[in-house]
Amino acid sequence: MRRVAIVATGQTDHAKERGDVSQPELIYEAVSRCIEDAELEPRDIDAVVLANMELFEGRMLPDLWCAEAATALFKPCLKIATGGTSGTSGAIAGFYEVASGIFETVLVVGWEKHSEGHTQTGMAMTDPMWDRHVAGGALNNFAISISQFMRTRHASPEAAARIAVKARRNAALNPHAHLKMPGLTVEQVMESRVLAEPVRLLDMCPQSDGACALVWAAEGKAERICPRPAWLQATATRHDKPYLGDHGDRLSTMRTLRSAAAEVYEELEIREPLKEFDVAEIYEPVSYAELAWYEALGFCGEGEASRLAEDGVTELDGELPVNPSGGVLSTNPVGASGVIRAAEAALQIHGRGGKRQVPDVRRALVTGYGVYSWSDVMVLGAEKP
Amino acid sequence: MTVHVAGIGRTRYGRDERSIPEMVYEAVTAALADAGVTRDEIDSIVTASIDLFDGKVASSVLITEVVGAVMKEEARVADDGAAAFVHASAMLLSGRKETVLVVAHAKNSEADADALTAWSTDPIHMQSLGLNDLTAAALQADAWLAQGGDPDAMDAVAARRLGVAPAEVASSPVIAEPLREKHRAPLVDGACALVLTCDVRRATCDVGVSGMGLCVEPHYLGDRDLIGCPAAQKAAEQAYRMAGWRPEDVQLVEISAQFAHQEILWTRALRFAEDDGRRSVDGGAINPSGGWFAGNPYVVAGLERIACAAEAIRTGTARRVLAHGCWGPAGQGHAVVLLEGGR
Asked: What would the 3-class secondary structure string for B255-294 be?
């Protein structure tokens, strides 16, 4: 199999509303930073994969409007759209396109401009017969799943609040992040207003305007572009039944994430993920989800996630720093969020993480989450697979 | 390594009273049966659909179960089905997958295409002018006629595809000057599924993918060569380069043209027109299936062209064929796939 690595990354300055730019301009901001970062020219890019949830902005085929800003003019270009996993699925699609041998370099760009649409209306457009009138939108869905998770796993609001604090404090070290809150406390999170019991305002991810780009390059070319390429070592994707009623205990089970992680761990012979990864960038849409993902990803046993959070194991100076970027809880332009996870993990391997850099990162875990039960997993490493 | 088209399945295109999952189930089941593979033997699924047509966010959610993506990998391409085919082939060529299912669906009877395709144009400079797939095609036809395009040729193409007299086309109501109702392919419902494999033991039929190309033009009509259609040319060049073919090698062509003049423009852009002296296929070998006019839904059209091209190889009609897909106003995006028998 052809070896492929992320050799460049670039992202916008994410914010609640980027009224100063159009969608193509937002994309161009990330893309120009990405290719300049690697001292590339637009002509060095062979093909482009875009990732975006067009219904959030009420668009159709937005790749056609935005292709030129992504250097895709007169090039192969297609768009991936799988809800929250769009960004990680787009990144994986870009990997396949280089791994196929057809292209040497592929640019992946994810973006979302939530301020130009109504995201929760878009998310409420679920199955018209069964789900639309039951739990439209992310918040209600999370509230149902989290209530179950708290009961079965004894996850505490305090532990969740610690996750929320970690994310916003890490974000303060990331110049691109949307919600930077260096002084946030557990008490402030637990006293913020209830959005849908038990989810409080500061437990939730924001809706952001932003874009993120990365470049995949084939072995041989990758080393010439980047002194320390982030090689894709393994990847797996799992989709699942979409109906709320089909998932008895969705967060605590999260069988897609468990199964995808198990597949890549087996392929790479990873037995102790907490020790064998140096950093993780995981897609946590709500504070409680990060706790659930710790268990699904095998960072701890079942019911032990709260302890992991309370012991600071996943803090920036902990045994396995999770989301040094501030994660989705700090920055969430949906189509970009998965690309940001992959780009931030690659940045850690490149050793270019600035104030959020974790020392000597050899192997990084990336996850994507979407449509309440879909999962992507990627492992990036300094070593070739 | 060669990617093979191992199975083909589709619904009957037309007004379909069933739900989207029911339609897709029929196409997928038929494709799996045709390939002689079970759902367990499918490693990954690539779907093509468009949210606004389905009125549904992340619209492949509707069909996760019927395409067999429960606890499996699915990539959903929000473009024409031909782009999904190219992506599925790339997955196979990576060596990480052996068998991939590609599925496209649309239900145009439940979606007003002209209202919705307006949302694919730049909302700042184009959408407010009333541009959509129909009006952009009309401007393209106007530009072609102004440069000496023959309106009778347009009528003749539509008449041939629809099996009616040219006079009937010429007297049908104007939908957007100079386009008349019968210059446009009917908007219908349906789903198409193909099983692709690089496992020769599963390649029950002998259809190999020899070349592929994708290309996107500028978005703004004023920036584009609406008549030369360079994206169609460039997509074909990529595919020929990959296959090591010349246009003369192609014996049969399946072109995605929703409007009559587009079949003429794209036949020429792909270098199969009579007037450029390079013609290598006779008129009967261009869209013998009827093309988009035979009643293919949006999104499905490009995948259906590939399916028809593969069937032409299976039946022995041709050995080397070209299938084309396109999407966006006046055909902004193009895909070309070259298939070969006896590989």
From this structure: CCCCEHHHHHHHHHHCCCCHHHCCCCCCHHHECCCCHHHH
| Residue type (1 letter), B201 | R
| pLDDT of residue B280 exceeding 90 | no
Domain membership of residue B80 (yes or no) is yes
d(CA A77, nearest CA chain B) in Å: 7
If asked whether residues B213 and B337 sit together in one domain, one would say yes
Q: Which residues of B touch A137 (CB under 8 A)?
A: none
Using CB atoms, which residue from B53, B90, B216 is nearest to A97? B90
**B105 and B212: one domain?**
no
- The pLDDT tens digits for B164-214 are 999 999 999 999 999 999 999 999 999 999 999 998 777 666 899 999 999
Same domain, B323 and B212: yes
Mean pLDDT of chain B: 94
| Chain A residues 124-153 with CB within 8 Å of chain B | 125-128
User: B217 to chain A: which residues are within 8 Å by CB?
Assistant: 73-74
Q: How does pLDDT run across B54-80, given as a tens digit for each residue? A: 988 888 998 999 999 999 999 999 999
Of B65, B70, B61, residue with least CA distance to B28: B65
Domain boundary among B142, B173, B197: B197
Residue B211 shares a structural domain with residue B329: yes
SS (H, E, C) chain A: CCCEEEEEEEECCCECCCCCCCHHHHHHHHHHHHHHHCCCCHHHCCEEEEECCHHHHCCCCHHHHHCHHHCCCCCCEEEECECECHHHHHHHHHHHHHHCCCCCEEEEEEEEEHHHCCHHHHHCCCCCCCCCCCCCCHHHHHHHHHHHHHHHHCCCHHHHHHHHHHHHHHHCCCCCCCCCCCCCCHHHHHHCCEEECCEEHHHECCCCEEEEEEEEEECCCHHHHCCCCEEEEEEEEEECCCCHHHCCCHHHHCHHHHHHHHHHHHHHCCCCHHHHCCEEECCCCEHHHHHHHHHHCCCCCCCCHHHHHHCCCCCCCCCCCECCCCHHHHCCCHHHHHHHHHHHHHHHHHCCCHHHCCCCCCEEEEEEEECCCEEEEEEEECCCC
Is there a domain that residue B152 lies in?
no
Q: Which residues of A touch B75 (CB under 8 A)?
A: 80, 82, 89, 92-93, 237
Of A22, A72, A128, the CB nearest to B216: A72
DSSP letter at B224 equals S
- Nearest CB partner across the interface for A1, out of B76, B83, B94: B94
Pick from B53, B93, B332: CB nearest A64: B332
Specify the residue for token string 């070896």. Answer: A3
- Note whether residue B105 is domain-resident: yes
Using the beta-carbon criterion (under 8 Å), do B61 and A240 form an inter-chain contact? Answer: no
**Number of domains chain B contains:** 2
The residue segments making up the domain with residue B69 are: 3-111+190-197
pLDDT beneath 70: ranges in chain A: 135-136
Chain A positions touching B64 (Cβ under 8 A) are 239-242
**Per-residue model confidence as pLDDT tens digits over A217-230:** 999 999 999 999 99
Of B179, B197, B215, the residue that ends a domain is: B197
CATH number at residue B236: 3.40.47.10
pLDDT per position as a tens digit, B108-157 = 999 999 999 999 999 999 999 999 999 999 999 999 999 999 999 999 99
pLDDT value of residue A246: 79
Residue B132 lies in a domain: no
- Smallest Cα distance from A319 to chain B, Å: 31
